[in-house]
Amino acid sequence: MAFLNLIWAKIIWLFSWHTLVSIFGIVFALGLVVIVHEWGHFIACRLLGIRVEEFSIGFGKLLKQWKGKKETLFSLRAIPLGGYVKPAGEAYFREVEIKSDDEFAAKPWWARSIMVFAGAGMNYVLAFIIFFFVILFMGMPVNDPTKVPTVLGEVKDGYPAATAGLLAGDKITSINGNVTNNWKDLLTTLDKANKENLPEVTVTYERDGKATTLPITFDETKKLGIVVEPTYEKIGVFKSVGMAAYQCYYWTALSLKTIAEKIYHREAPDMAGPIGIFELVGKGVHNGAEDYFFLIALISVAIGMFNLFPIPILDGGHIVFFIIEGITGKRPTEKVLNNACGVGAVILIGLVLFATYQDIGRLKKRGTDKAAITETQTQDTQQTEVAND
Fold first, then answer.
1. Which of 105, 138, 158, 330 holds its CA 20 to 30 A away from the CA of 232?
2. Distance between CA 100 and CA 88 in Å, rounded?
3. Pairing mode, if any, of strands 171-175 and 178-179?
């Protein structure tokens, strides 16, 4: 009976509104990023005079197919998490037979480089457009703590603030009798309490217009576990353009710098695999339109950047071979290219497996942390009951 109840609970969870919205959010986000990437290849083919045999949205079982201009077949397939563009005469090695001037292999190395680069380029264009509209309508975060109200954006589970009963949206008005007009006042007061090694602080907060005062005992971390609610200020169109471009640069530079530092210090880089990405997007869709689309922009930047890595089988790897061809005047042989792509495939599979391993590790750690928190809370409750008895 318990097993049937468990199965029924899983079925209800699977078809709950929350789960369905998460699935839609994942499909839309990843589908949009991939389709835009392939659309970049498609547009480049059109501009460079390369005939496209097929442009597929999704992969797997064919659902519908129709013929567009210039004999291109447009396909709609069952799994909407991908897509591909198939140029006529797509070959990268020396021994290819060229049948017409509108084939991919017939074009000079620089034209093929542009076509291959266009996919990642369109990912950056998508990210720029999303960043622009999010910044234009939402504004830029205020970084000056003296101008940020003391409203809590997040209260982390397992920390003293959550244990005491504080919630996101609460506004802290004073700590130990010191009025907190802004986030800097709050941080200054907490820092003073830590320097004086106080075991607890008395916090007054407002919720739904009602003021409440309660003591909060520090744990070994000496942190309450609270995060500020971001405050935004509106900026104009031209400044939004500049900030959108800066966001594309910033997240790319930060990612490359982080990877380089990890390699330099011989540390394993933090990576998100399929599980991590699905979880991140699934949660992001419930955090509001601005956060969700900002997340899509970040994923688009990551996909564009990753595809330009000089790894054989990726777009960046093909561009390296094209540049070598431009310098030497010779294309790689089929054997050399196949061997290089084989190595690239092994690297990619290794990266995916490693990222998935990290995803599973994070899930296990989160489960262990939650279990530890639950056990601690249970022990505290039992101790309180014994004391009361």
1. 158
2. 9
3. antiparallel
> Would you state the pLDDT for residue 287?
73
Write out the two tokens for 41: 């290849």
The secondary structure of 201-234 as a DSSP string is EEEEEEETTEEEEEEEE--TT----EEEPP-EE-
- Using CA atoms in the order 82, 88, 91, 97, what is the torsion angle rounded to 10 degrees? 160
How many of the other CB atoms lie within 10 Å of CB of 143? 9
> Structure pTM?
0.77
Task: Report pLDDT digits (tens) over 183-201.
Answer: 899 889 888 888 888 888 8
CA distance 201 to 13: 40
d(CA 155, CA 152): 7
Spatial separation of the C-alpha atoms in residues 192 and 269, rounded to whole Å: 36
**Long-range Cβ pairs for the range 305-311 (8 Å, 24+):** 305/120, 305/252, 305/255, 305/256, 307/37, 307/119, 307/120, 307/123, 308/117, 308/120, 311/344, 311/347, 311/348
Angstrom CA distances, 380 to 160, 219, 376, 387, stand at 13, 14, 6, 10
Cβ contact 97:11 at 8 Å = no
Residue 60 has pLDDT above 50, yes or no: yes
Please give the Cα distance from 50 to 6 (Å, whole number). Answer: 55
Q: Which domains does the chain have, with CATH numbers?
A: 12-139+276-368 (no CATH), 145-231 (2.30.42.10)
Q: Which helix (H) or strand (E) holds 74?
A: strand 73-87
342: tokens are 């084989």
Take residue 57 and report the two structure tokens written for it: 């949205």
Q: What is the rounded CA–CA span in Å between residue 109 and residue 266? A: 37
Query: Mean pLDDT throughout 49-75?
Result: 88
